[in-house]
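ok here's CENP-V/GFA domain-containing protein:
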Amino acid sequence: MATIINSTGEQDQTEDNVLFTGSCFCRAVTFTLSELPMKAYLCHCLNCRRSTGSSFAYNAAFPRSALKLSFQKPARTAFASPTATGSEDARGDAADDSTAIDESVISTFGVKASGMRKFCSLCGTRLLIYVREEVAVMQDKVIIPVGVIDGSEKDERLRPTAEAFCERREEWMPDMRGTEAFDKMFTA
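and the structure:
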């Protein structure tokens, strides 16, 4: 059975009103989200660029109260190559049954004042982003990289509606149609 930790740090076994599910690559950390995102967006800030190794990150901001984390032994411990059909041909070796997994599997980079990124310490997947303290409008939000949300590639509720830090957008990258552009972080 998985341990579920709600946004206040308490154990919880209910999964009512789940709108989204997701996980890290090894599936030691899974989560549910019980509310729609405040905004799904592309972020061109230097922190997102460096942490993804790409020109931008594709994130969604959710109320912190909507997030419930679960922890279990990893479903895989090795990279599985996709087949020509896009499905995985192997999941890698499962973790030893004696492996105890709890919230300590999540590692943190950063501090509250300057922002924190949380990731699975077993597979390295970026999972949660907390914006620095001075951005008051984001203090009750958690940012989730959209790629860790199950089925995100086909879910219109996660379509980007904004671009943040456009002043840092690559010159070769065109404006994204249908999104609102912000030179810094969006305000609401």
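+1. The CA atoms of residues 28 and 63 lie 23 Å apart.
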